[in-house]
Amino acid sequence: MPPETLAKLDLFERYDALEQIGMLPDEHRVGEPERHYKEWAPDDYKAVLALFNSWPRFEAADKQMDDMRAGFLAAFAQNLAMNPNADRKGKLLLAADALNTAGSDTFGPDFPRIELDLIAGGPPGYYGGLRPDGKIQINTLKLNDPTVNGSAFSGDLSFIELVVHEATHKVQLFQAEISDGETQDGLLSMRVAEAFYESTAGAKDYNRDLYWLHPFEVQARDFANSTAKALQANMPASGAAPARPLRRGVTL
Predict the structure, then answer these.
(1) Mean pLDDT lowest for which of 47-51, 165-169, 221-225, 238-242?
(2) Closest of 113, 118, 245, 241 to residue 167, by C-alpha
(3) What does the alpha-carbon distance between residue 185 and residue 181 come to, in Å, rounded to a whole number?
(4) How would you list the strands of the sheet with 136-139, edge to edge?
(5) What is the pLDDT of residues 237-251, one digit of tens each?
């Protein structure tokens, strides 16, 4: 199929096309597709990239993410006003609490809790990531670094961007889980995208764009970056926001 034809496919057709290419995750090789990337032809990569680049957008889903961003910014400003002397670690805990507030307000009480797992260590260059159990892991040995690798921001903002990025993946997985599997909406979009997310990890060694342009990564990157930009522009001065006690036992 030419790219212009692929761009017109609905979510079910996209699933079928990706499955035919062999993109479903292999049962035994974590991060690899059923048909190993070594077997792929250049047109296979082109087809998948065309599908990812033209992934449909849903207005209601975009509105929910906008609402979550607004809720996070407001809750984080309040948390920071209550804790003006918080260090970088403390600000990350405040950010996690604000994400919980915004997530619950936007998606309801079933929204999964955002929790940080603070560890001292990890592979070289490791700053953090989403664990299989849903906790966001942060390498505290990196907290003295001036910025997170790959971030456009420096200091506290780069680490907050990391937490928001991984929290967005939790939102995506939650949406995929609650999809009815039939309605062509933002929930089904996440459910279909999730089916092929794991298998893109192995593409980093063959065609990094395949991982970089997966709908999950595009959304998480854009949401975290735009949220950090908003924080950069509107970071409140001490005491500028109305005080609100921290929720759910967050401690510094």
Answers:
(1) 238-242
(2) 113
(3) 10
(4) 116-119, 136-139, 128-130
(5) 322 233 333 333 333
| The two three-digit tokens of residue 62, written as one number | 């975009």
Closest to 156 (Cα-Cα) out of 83, 241, 209, 205: 83
In the beta sheet, which residues pair with residue 117? Answer: 137
